[in-house]
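name: query_chain
kind: protein
chains: 1
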Amino acid sequence: MPVETTLVVLGVSGDMASRLLLPALGQLLHREPEHRITLIGSDTKDWTDEHFRDVVRAAFAGAGATGAAVRRVAEHATYRTADATSADDLRALLHGVRGRIALYFALPPAVAEASCVALGDVDLPEGTMLALEKPFGTDANSAERLNEVLARLVPENQVFRVDHFLGRSTILNLLGIRFANRALEPVWNGQEVESVVIRYDEQLGLEGRAGYYDRAGALVDMIQSHLLQALAFVAMEPPATLDEVDLRDATAAVLRATRVWEDDPAQSSRRARYTAGRIGRRKMPSYVDEPGVDSARKTETLAEATFEVATARWAGVPFTLRSGKAIGDPRREMVLRFRPVPHLPKGFTGDAPGAVLRFSLAPDQFSLELNVNGGEDPFHLHRDVMDTDLGQGSTLAYSEVLDGILSGDPTLAVRGDAAVQCWRIVQPILDAWAGDEVPLDEYAAGSEGPEGWTPLPV
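structure:
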């Protein structure tokens, strides 16, 4: 029987709640109506219950969510004005709340941290769960301090450091394709794999997010969090089970073993930002001309970095992570490139590069590029691709995240030690960039990146 849960969303009037969190909640209720949820929204704006219910209904409708459970949550949603950094306001907000509480901080990171500090003066009901958005701190030391604050509030398995990439169907499909196929699992190692590329480019520009993005940049926004988590799933040892202890132990072990390639952040990373250009019919201004941008910060909109996972399975294999904005033909994929065969019998003609295993995101696809022979010349090798469409995934990534929170299952949440490790991994690159050891290149919006960059293998 599902546990009755009150979902309290702090910062509910913000973009993240209306664009991502509330639609995902509607989709989850549509798919799993057995969830028993009471919804409370809170922020500093002077909203009424009815206005909040209209916001909730609109978000649910936009996600195509229907059914009795969807209507019930929308009709009984309530709104309370509160300052999330005030212990008195938080105490009043949580007073008399029924069932288990899931407190979701849909707030900027600094405000969320201040709110957690304020909760130290509030008696939280037993079983209270805390969900926080990335980034978790601003470096390894601040992440450790935030972990200490959270540890004084609730046990670690009641803390949900949200990384919605872990709810993406492609990341989850990776587990089944790797671990359930004997043709793949024995060759999933550095003896057979030559390189790994994980990239997430997008056509979108700043889209009004200067307040956050201009202080973070592509490295912190994407590589430090999402893409390092994806790397951990690719490189982990087979866990005994897929429960939260075994799976998170396996991914955390990968992060502890990950370091900048050859310990040389200047040579193993690249950065750039977009200038004015065009994507399709859309004209895009230069990044430095976007509202709210401070050009003196030298914020990158395209980041690329290469790492090594120093384990017996992966030592010597480069893992290259890349993410960029305003890219004309964006690639979103995880690519394992295998080594060529050690011996090719004489008589074949044509090239025989290593096979390529590719997981594409949105839409989700799985493909294997192989050397085959045949046609007019039966011994001439050519490239062929076997692929399958894995679909868009049945749920939004945030629906998977919310399902874990409401079920009290932190399997797809980032554990505290992993959050610290992600900062430790990228800190040498951040230091090198701060010292101008790596040039800030430029690329036109709508291009694939700076002209002088050696392209990643595709």
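note: Residues 136 and 419 are 7 Å apart (CA to CA).
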